[in-house]
Amino acid sequence: MDKYIVVDIESTGVKLSEDEIIEIGAVYIENGTPKDKFNTLIKPTTPISQNITNITGISNEMVKYAYGVDAVLPKFITFTRGCPLVGHNINIFDYRLLKIHANKLNLAFNCKLVDTLVIARKVLDILPSRKLGDLCEFYNIKLVNAHRAYDDAYATYELFVKLEQQFGLVNPELFIPQQIEFKAPKIEPITSKQIAYLESLCKKYNISPEKDIATMSKSEGSRNIDKIISKYGR
Question: pTM here?
Fold first, then answer.
C-alpha cells in the first residue's frame, strides 16, 4: 500500500450497541513514511467509568471541554482521505464502533481494512499472546502510554511494518486491504412510554439520569430503567 491510515480508538467500554468513543488517534502513512497525524479526545454523553480511567488514563476532567463525536468524526473521516485503514483488532471493534457512530450522524464511512491482530494470529501462532503490548515487546517496539489512541496507533504502524517485512512475501494476501461485511445496527429512539417511566423513576428516587433522557436510544432507555429498578426497586 502506498497510502494508508493506522488508527486506534479508546471508548467507554466494549459494547458496540452502547458504548462511546472517547479518543481517536491515527497516523497517515505515505510511501512507508508517517506524513500526518490525527489525535483528539472526545466528550461522551455519559460519564467515563473509573475502570476505563484506570485502563486508559482518560478521565472525565480531561474530556470536560472536548468536542463531541458529532464534531470530531466528520473531521476524522476527512483525514482518512478514503485510504485503507490498518489497526489492531480493527475488524471486530474499532471500525465497527466508528461505523456505528457515523451511521448515527448520517455520515458516509466505508473503508477497506488490514487487521494486524488477524495477521499475527496466522503467522505468529507460536506466541502465547497476540495483544498489541505483547507483540510490541516481541519486536522491541517502544509503546509509551499504552491504551492511549495515538500511541497505540503509532505502535501499530511500527508493528505492521515489522510484520510486512517478515511475512509480506510469504503471505502477501494477509496484507491486502479487505472490505468487511458489517451493517451498522439501526438505532431506535427512546419511546414516549420509556421517557415517562424513566422520568418518574428519577423523580421518585431523586437521581439524575446518566444523560439527557430525550436523547437516549430505546436500548439505552431500557438499560437505565433496569439499572434503577435493580438498585432501588420499582
Answer: 0.83
